Amino acid sequence: MTPGNHGPGPGLWDIHSGRLHRGEDGDQITTTVCAHTDAEPRPPGSVLIGFAGWLLVILAAGLFLVSFTGQYSYIFAARHQSLPAMIESAMFDAGMIIFALLALGLARAGKPARTERALIVACAFGSAAMNYAAADDASPRSVIAYTAAPVFLAIVVDRVIAVIRRHVLADAEPSPWAPLGRLAAGLARLCVIIALYTLRLFLDAANTGRGLRLMVLNAAPVPQARRVRVITPPPQARFQPPNGTTKKAQLLTLYRQHRDYGDRAKVSQVAGELAPKADLQPGTARTYLYAEVDGQPS
User: Fold this and answer.
1) Which end of the chain is more exposed for a tag (fewer CB within 10 A), N or C?
2) CA atoms of 72 and 85, how far apart (whole Å)
3) Whole domain around residue 6: which residue ranges?
4) How far is it, in rounded angstroms, from Cα 125 to Cα 92?
5) Nearest to 261 by CA among 247, 248, 271, 276
6) Do 14 and 54 reside in the same domain of the chain?
7) How far apart are CA 248 and CA 285, in angstroms?
8) At what angle are helices 91-108 and 114-134 packed, to 10 degrees?
9) pLDDT per residue over 180-218, tens digit each?
10) H or E element that contains 237
11) Are residues 31 and 56 in the same domain?
């Protein structure tokens, strides 16, 4: 397109100057069509999210003061030292702010910040626990008044971080509160099951007890016992004396066949070995063997 008469139209705006250029004959023309700046247009919602971020700063400052005051009253009463009590009172809340800044920086870069967000929740619970220690645990109103500030601040910070990351990447990141919610839902279901079975046990104790017994037995079966083959050794062969002989004769017959026959020092040992075979007591067998060795009639 060349400069000249372009009709009665309003012409094109010069982006830098914001004015219309006119030719010598009064027609509206433009001297350049590529008069754009290098700045990229802001995505929709950026102003609102930025405003929410500044409101978060104001909210965090106020809630930090509220939480700090509750913790300071408890820690100072326990330590009786002003400066250490102030430092310890600001510990969890300051950690929450640090992790929030880290998570916000990662979210603006479009990167996940799951660890930092989980640590924000942990710091919130730590701060709430210290505020709970300062509250009157017998009064629910006192407990809520002392513990609400850090928990609410953690929820707001987590949602701001999640929204910023979704605004950058246009995707959803799971919140660190999700596992806590699943745990609470699981505990609620467990409580309902326990309540129902308790009511059923009250209404029908016999069948409920029998069913619970079968359920436990099926859930924990007894391991199958291994079959071990036991080999029983054959009974020791006993000396079979001739018919009509006495126990003494049986003993002497066995002794005369023994390898230690005639050794007086081993008579006691041999008597203990041969006495059961002749069905005699060891003492009686020892007497017979000594008489045999010494050549004396027994």
Assistant:
1) N
2) 6
3) 1-36
4) 9
5) 271
6) no
7) 8
8) 160
9) 778 888 889 889 988 888 888 888 888 888 887 888 877
10) none
11) no
